Amino acid sequence: MNIVMESDLSQSIVEVKDVSFSRGDRSIYKNMSFSVPKGKITAIMGPSGIGKTTMLRLIGGQLKPDSGDILFEGGSIPNMSRKELYEARTKMSMLFQSGALFTDMSVFDNIAFPIREHTELSEDLIRLVVLMKLQAVGLRGAKDLMPSELSGGMARRAALARAIALDPELIMYDEPFAGQDPISMGVLVKLIKSLNEVLGLSSLIVTHDVNEVMSIADHVIIIADQGVIGCGTPDEMRNHESPLVQQFLKGLSDGPVPFHFPAQTYADELLGEKA
Amino acid sequence: MLDLFQKLGHKTLGRFAALGRSTYMLFGALVNVPNFKKGTPLLIRQLYMVGSQSLLIIMVSGLFIGMVLALQGYTVLVGYGAEDSLGPLVALSLLRELGPVVTALLFAGRAGSALTAEIGLMKATEQLSSLEMMAIDPLKRIIAPRFWAGFISMPLLAVIFSAVAIIGAHLVGVDWLGVDTGSFWSIMQSQVSFQQDILNGIIKSFVFAIVVTWIALYKGYDCVPTSEGISKATTETVVHSSLAVLGFDFILTAVMFTS
Amino acid sequence: MNSRKLEILVGFFVALGILAFAMLALKVANSGISGSGETYTLNAKFENIGSLKARAPVKVGGVVIGRVESIYVHPQEFLPVVNMTIDAQYLCRFSDTSSISILTSGILGEQYLGIHPVISPNSAEQRCLGQVVTENKQDEAIDDLFGVDSKALGDGDSITDTKSAIVLEELIGQFLFNQGSE
């Protein structure tokens, strides 16, 4: 078991070691550790409000952990200088929940944007690259539309095309399936899977859509209670002994994570007695 | 009582923190090697948004303020038989005070609030975050061109405002109320000094440009990214920058025009 | 909005700004006579300058030819000295026999300087400008008449024939004194 772990670590693109993070007085993570293997699809799951998006921002270096270390390709993100951090960020990209397309430019210009900023390619070459990326997400016909003219699913696909514009080594998806109809959800699932295979990049998906992500993930990490409560392949997770993991995967309304927000007893409150 | 002091101290510290954050933002945006090839189109776009689009409101208000000044000034001056001094009265009040100040106030309402709302929405829709994740500094890409556009536009707008207002005053004073056109211009010329009045007015308007644009950008950049947060930030931009303009105007006037 | 249209509109805005600035500089302010290199300075010592102020106009027959630059008290004689800048086209045109007085425009108006010019002879003007003097019978005749070579006023020269401002109190005092002595 130990030997397997070692080889896993050597091939991981992101390693989170003993990270603690708090916002104000509220502790979000306590001594959390996990690693994201290279070239695989990794899913981070957990109930809403436990700071999954925060995790992505920590990996992207937009937030700094209170303690612990985050390694990206062996380099420590929290200890990087600004220049090194910006260099590291050119190798990763992030798909935001809202897509975060620039509303003042067309779809084509949105996807050309990172290429224009970071390379000195000629406009002809940029056109070719952009068309290739748009073809990959099936939006070549929408290249002249403005972001406001796209549906939610299309906007997310366009944002995906922008995220892969510079051929990153790691893509982080922040809730890619939230608020999508079944068809666009299916399209996105297929896209994430095929991009991972074709481009050989590593994917990190943060989500709470269990069924979709279990179908494509190679590695699943479940977060709750300020730490990792279980990790492994989807099959391992389905047979996990932790009741919390089972509750989350099966979507039971009550269990270790209580249905009720902490409060005084129902009867007391109804009768108006002060706690 | 202790509670009150605690609150007061907390608020003061908060003000200092805001000043620190806004200074940090401005420095982050401005201290860098300019890249003219990539920067110029961005600047031109912002000059259009901030400058050209404010042109109409500035010119219309300038015209009316000039006409009102002439009308009011005339009724007072004619009592002393000094209606020939209408020219310098209008020109001096415009160049020294009204031009820079009214332009700055209109600019805060027209362009400042738009800047705050735009950047606040960019923050709310994660566009700023996504720039950061693309390894592009939003301070340099978003804040810097907008700041420079404001810095360049405001003095130009103030100069246009004053010129249009003087034309408006001429329209009312000379063409309607019958002040002699020769004395209107010549007494104005003999009383208005290029360095003392025109240049000082332009310096004022550069200062106002920094103040208003800075506040507008900071409020947008620092806002709570929700709809209430953005609406609050937009209001604060207009209120704070208007007050700041009036305060700075007093200081500048005291320094420039009293000796 | 394509970028060409954008550039045109911004260009229009900037051009309008420059135009407005030019109008303010040329039409509203008196940028002609002040600061720029085309002036020369003259001094004049007065008994009393009344309420003459810096930037007051210097006129010849009502035409503004310069401005008062500064006023200070002579360190030894304790008399006010007025320093004025005059348009360069009048350089060496006035003779040193010209007189200058402090006048008031209207009854309540501002005070200004009036020069009563004596035109300097050709030869004096040429001497003042540092040119070779061409002999001229008429000039020599004038010089002979006064017994000295007449001089033209160049940069930094002083007008000696000055008439001070009329101060109302002194005028009244004088009038009463004269009345009393009669």
Question: How helix-rich are the residues of chain C, as a percent range?
Answer: 25-40%
Q: Name the shape of chain B in a single word.
A: elongated
- Spans of at least 5 consecutive residues with low confidence of chain C: none
Give the largest chain-chain interface (CB within 8 Å): B-C, 30 and 28 residues
The percent range for helix content of chain B is: over 70%
Strand arrangement across the biggest beta sheet of chain C? 7-1-4-3-2-6-5-8
What's the mean pLDDT score of chain B? 90
Hey, roughly how much beta strand do the residues of chain B contain? under 5%
By DSSP (H or I, 4+ residues per run), the number of helices of chain C equals: 4
Structural class of chain C: alpha/beta
- Count the beta strands of chain B: 0
Quaternary status: heterotrimer
Q: What gyration radius of chain B follows from the Cα positions, in whole Å?
A: 21 Å
User: What is the count of β-strands of chain C?
Assistant: 8
- SSE string of chain C, helix = H, strand = E? HEEEEEEHHEEH
Q: Estimate what percentage of residues of chain C fall within beta strands.
A: 25-35%
Coarse structural class of chain B: mainly alpha
What does this structure look like?
The complex is a heterotrimer of chains A (275), B (259) and C (182). In chain A, helix 4 crosses helix 5 and helix 4 runs parallel beside helix 6. In chain A, the strands form two sheets. Chain A has a six-stranded mixed sheet with strand order 6-7-8-3-9-10, sandwiched between helices. Chain A has a four-stranded antiparallel sheet with strand order 2-1-4-5. Chain A starts with a helix and ends in a 5-residue tail after the last helix. Chain A is built from eleven helices and ten strands. With 259 residues, chain B is mainly alpha-helical. Chain B has one domain. Chain B is built from nine helices and no strands. In chain B, 49% of the residues are buried. Chain C is an alpha/beta fold. In chain C, 25% of the residues are buried. The model of chain C has no long low-confidence stretch (mean pLDDT 80). The radius of gyration of chain C is 23 Å and the shape is flat. In chain C, a hairpin with a 6-residue loop joins strand 3 and strand 4. In chain C, 32% of the residues lie in helices and 26% in strands. Chains B and C meet through helix 2, helix 6, helix 7 and helix 8 of B and helix 1 of C.
